[in-house]
């Protein structure tokens, strides 16, 4: 599966313990804004709504019990290792 550079950055941050917080529209179902945080609490500027939708469509991230989105097992398998992995 081909994963872009921006998607790799987001997946890498999530694999290290980050999470994606989302905000829904007033009606309820549609996600209108997202914020991606790494494990240290810093916000990633690379994570846009388009990148989020691609990762969600490919089932590389998922939310459980209406919590923040985190990386799935499939996402962990597809992320390329980087020097600062822990």
Structure report:
Belongs to the UPF0386 family. This is UPF0386 protein MOV92_16085. The chain is an alpha+beta fold. The protein has one domain (5-78). Helices cover 30% and strands 22% of the residues. It has a two-stranded antiparallel ribbon with strand order 1-2. The protein starts with a helix and ends in an 8-residue tail after the last helix. The model has no long low-confidence stretch (mean pLDDT 90).
Detail the topology: elements first, then pairings.
Layout: H1 5-15, E1 19-24, E2 31-37, H2 49-57, E3 61-63, E4 69-71, H3 73-78
Antiparallel strand pairs: 1-2, 3-4
Protein name: UPF0386 protein MOV92_16085
Pfam family, one: YjhX_toxin
Family: Belongs to the UPF0386 family.
> What's the overall average pLDDT, rounded?
90
* Tally of contiguous helical segments: 3
Alpha carbon gap, first and last residue: 24 Å
Backbone shape: globular
Helical amount: 25-40%
List low-confidence stretches.
none
Trace the largest sheet across and list its strands.
1-2
Q: Sketch the major β-sheet.
A: 2 strands, antiparallel
| CA gyration radius, whole angstroms | 12 Å
Family: Belongs to the UPF0386 family.
Protein name: UPF0386 protein MOV92_16085
Summarize the structure.
The chain has helices spanning 5-15, 49-57, 73-78; strands at 19-24, 31-37, 61-63, 69-71. It is built from 3 helices and 4 strands; from the N terminus they run αββαββα.
């Amino acid at each position: 599966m081909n994963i872009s550079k921006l998607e790799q950055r987001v997946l890498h941050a999530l694999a290290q313990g980050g999470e994606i917080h989302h905000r829904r529209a007033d009606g309820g179902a549609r996600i209108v804004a997202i914020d991606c945080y790494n494990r240290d609490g810093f916000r990633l500027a690379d994570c846009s709504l388009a990148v989020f939708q691609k990762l969600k469509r490919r089932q590389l991230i998922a939310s459980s019990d209406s919590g923040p989105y985190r990386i799935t097992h499939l996402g962990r398998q597809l992320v390329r290792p980087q020097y600062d992995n822990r």
